[in-house]
């Protein structure tokens, strides 16, 4: 029988959730007119990262890899959207660097975890 993963014990899920929560805190400061545009996109991407880890963890390792791919895609999309937010002065350079560093760490960990499946 295929092994299933307890997503709550996975470091990649916990770090993804931490990133999502930090993003949520940053989005509070965005202008109201961005709530349904950039802020909404950023929120969806950040939530997608740990959510796809959780959803995939209940699948076979082969299927889990696909969910990890989706999660990684969301993380790269998030990085791009944060650059746009920084350009628009919604987040400052320090916030951007801190978030980018955390996202890059998550990406490294997640790719390493994915390579260890099957």
The number of distinct helices, counting runs of at least 4 residues, comes to: 4
In the CATH scheme, the class of the domain at 34-115 would be Mainly Alpha
The major beta sheet can be summarized as:
none
Rg for CA atoms:
15 Å
Could you explain the architecture of this structure?
There is one protein chain. This protein is mainly α and 118 residues long. It has a domain at 34-115: 23S rRNA-intervening sequence (de novo design (two linked rop proteins)), CATH 1.20.1440. It contains four helices and no strands. The chain has helices at residues 11-27, 38-57, 61-87, 93-115. Helix 1 (11-27) runs antiparallel to helix 2. The radius of gyration is 15 Å and the shape is elongated. The model has no long low-confidence stretch (mean pLDDT 95).
Task: Detail the topology: elements first, then pairings.
Blueprint: H1 11-27, H2 38-57, H3 61-87, H4 93-115
Helix pairs in contact: 1-2, 1-4, 2-3, 3-4
């Amino acid at each position: 029988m295929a092994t299933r993963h307890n997503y709550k014990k996975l470091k990649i899920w916990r770090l993804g959730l931490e990133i999502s929560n930090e993003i949520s805190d940053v989005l509070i400061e965005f202008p109201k007119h961005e709530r349904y545009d950039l802020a909404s996109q950023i929120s969806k991407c950040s939530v997608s990262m740990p959510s796809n880890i959780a959803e995939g963890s209940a699948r076979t390792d082969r299927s889990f890899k696909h969910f990890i791919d989706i999660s990684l895609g969301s993380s790269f999309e998030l990085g791009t959207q944060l650059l746009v937010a920084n350009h628009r002065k919604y987040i400052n350079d320090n916030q951007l660097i801190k978030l980018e560093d955390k996202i890059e760490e998550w990406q490294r960990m997640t790719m390493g975890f994915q390579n260890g499946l099957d």
